[in-house]
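Structure ticket #2291
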Amino acid sequence: MTGPRPGPEPQPGPEPQPGPEPQPGPEAAQGPEAEPRPEAARTGGEAPAGVRRSGLRNPDRAVRGLGAGTLALEALVLLLAIQPIRLVGGDLGGAAIGVIVALAVACVVLAGMMRRAWAWHAGTVLQGLLLLSGLLHWSLFGLGVIFALVWAYAWHVRRVILG
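Resolution: structure written out below.
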């Protein structure tokens, strides 16, 4: 037979309070505004001491990953752009292909060196060189403009996260 089992009845009474009641003191007179709030970091206010502004565990590593990912993507796009430029654009000689490959290799090398302080500046120079390679073919100038804008955004994100 199944049914309710006989057992002890619950005792009616007040529910227990979790922990001791706070005692009024000088801290309570100041109100909640006196307490540092972690949401101040998210709303643009001053963050209290010890609270990270970005909320990331390791902001330096995140920013390095952003820069390295941007440069790696740029290298891939440059290498993949060689054949379509040759087919559509026509005059892309050996020297121009060498310049594109050299820029792609430089992107990969810089992506691996993003821990260095000068790597961000070298990446900016690399964007300028890609813009100059537009003298070899107009589509390289177009790629240079696109990646210069992406690189400028990466700089902006770096400045916001690292302060």
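Closing remark: The longest helix spans residues 59-89.
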